[in-house]
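Consider the tokenized backbone below.
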């Protein structure tokens, strides 16, 4: 069956959902993230406008025991989920697969895994940028090579302002039309940004976050 009409509707979702603000915060590891509810709510609204639904189907799952740092037993579940988009107008269908993993001390590991799979299925299907590029994980590379001292590594990892600036900068590149265009909009050079992250004051970093938010919000309205 032709999927032309359904694909057009999914493309319309991509046009309307350009950016999702990261409202969640991990207190232990000190980083912001887009919550599943934020992702689902935003995309669900646009899918509903297009008369498209998405149905999940868990096709594989495994659960294993794990002893955490406190010596307590927890359960880690891994799932593979098939998500099918169905056009309420034409009945056309289009399926994708996503994997998820969840950890819990009770009976919620599988549900957490399914939630994670759905969140990333939506974000990847509609190419929503987050700035979380696994190939750009300089922290891991430096730790493995031994080039970064432990104290410096911990300081950078626990600085939520640096993390927020880095994430929003990466996301705003697409909105601004490229890295050079973004630097021009910010009135900063690459060296200026590096200096800001390394030795900028809290006020300067918060000002940069506000600038990036303005660019991202303007991009949503474009």
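A designed sequence for it:
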């Amino acid at each position: 069956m032709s999927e032309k009409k359904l694909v057009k509707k999914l493309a319309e979702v991509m046009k309307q959902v350009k950016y999702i603000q990261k409202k969640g915060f991990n207190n232990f590891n000190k980083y912001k993230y887009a919550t599943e509810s934020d992702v689902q709510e935003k995309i669900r609204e646009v899918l509903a406008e297009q008369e498209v639904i998405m149905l999940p189907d868990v096709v594989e799952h495994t659960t294993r025991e794990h002893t955490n740092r406190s010596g307590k037993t927890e359960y880690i579940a891994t799932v593979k989920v098939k998500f099918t988009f169905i056009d309420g107008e034409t009945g056309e269908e289009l399926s994708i697969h996503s994997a998820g993993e969840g950890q819990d001390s009770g009976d919620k590991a599988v549900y957490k895994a399914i939630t994670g799979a759905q969140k990333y299925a939506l974000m990847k299907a509609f190419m929503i940028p987050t700035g979380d590029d696994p190939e750009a994980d300089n922290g891991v590379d430096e730790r493995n090579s031994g080039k970064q001292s432990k104290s410096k590594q911990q300081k950078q990892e626990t600085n939520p302002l640096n993390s927020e600036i880095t994430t929003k900068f990466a996301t705003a590149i697409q909105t601004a039309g490229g890295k050079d265009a973004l630097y021009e909009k910010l009135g900063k050079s690459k060296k200026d940004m590096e200096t800001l992250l390394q030795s900028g004051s809290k006020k300067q970093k918060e000002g940069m976050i506000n600038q990036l938010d303005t660019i991202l919000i303007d991009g949503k309205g474009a």
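The longest strand covers residues 52-67.
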